[in-house]
Amino acid sequence: MKFVFLLLAVLVFVHLDLGSASDLSIRERIAAVAKGYEGSEKWSFKSWRKVGRNKWKCNIFVAEVIEEAGAVVPHRRWWKWTPIGAEEWGKADSEYLADTGCWETTTSPGIGDVATDGKHVAIVTGDEETVSATYDKVVRNDWGFDPPKREADLFWRYTCDD
Predict the structure, then answer these.
(1) If DSSP codes are grouped into helix, strand and coil, which group holds residue 22?
(2) Terminal Cα distance for the chain, rounded
(3) I need a surface site. Which of 20, 38, 76, 83 has the fewest CB within 10 A?
């Protein structure tokens, strides 16, 4: 009987303490989804994911994370799944991003923002921390905040409500 009571107390505590994913803001969900894929080889250069082997997939990773979190990511074509690439994320005047009505540039990056230098794209997951797809796997590091060679020069923030 004590075991049942203890188990019930733990379950109630966990439920009250953790809440649910829907309690998170959209930007918090984007960051949480990205962190959840750390170590995954699903978007590696050699994987077949969406665009075939031996192709960079950092933009595919970012697009799938954003969509899994419930946000809108711009696509180049309306009739098939074609998310914008790192180069387009790198344009402060991107019509694709502007047309969604949900993305704006920011000079003070925060969690869930997209960091880019026009060649690579990543999700900001913490203070000077990003998660992105690399040659081997998804990594969490300081890409985008490590001048001069790994510094993002543009950050995009999702602004639409959940």
Answers:
(1) helix
(2) 43
(3) 20
Q: Which helix (H) or strand (E) holds 153?
A: none
* Residue 103, helix vs strand vs coil: strand
Give the pair of three-digit tokens for residue 80: 């098939």
Task: Give me the pLDDT at residue 52, please.
Answer: 80
Q: How far is residue 17 from each of residues 12, 20, 49, 108, 144, measured CA to CA in Å? A: 8, 9, 36, 30, 33
Q: Is the pLDDT of residue 150 over 90?
A: no
Q: Give 5-59 pLDDT, tens digit per residue.
A: 444 443 434 333 444 556 899 999 999 999 999 999 999 999 988 888 888 999 9
Sheet bearing 138-141, strands edge to edge? 103-106, 154-158, 114-116, 121-126, 129-133, 138-141
**Among 152, 141, 73, CA closest to 107:** 152
Both tokens of 30, joined, read 């984007």
- Domains in the chain (CATH in brackets) are 24-158 (3.90.1720.10)
- Cβ(131)–Cβ(34) under 8 Å? yes
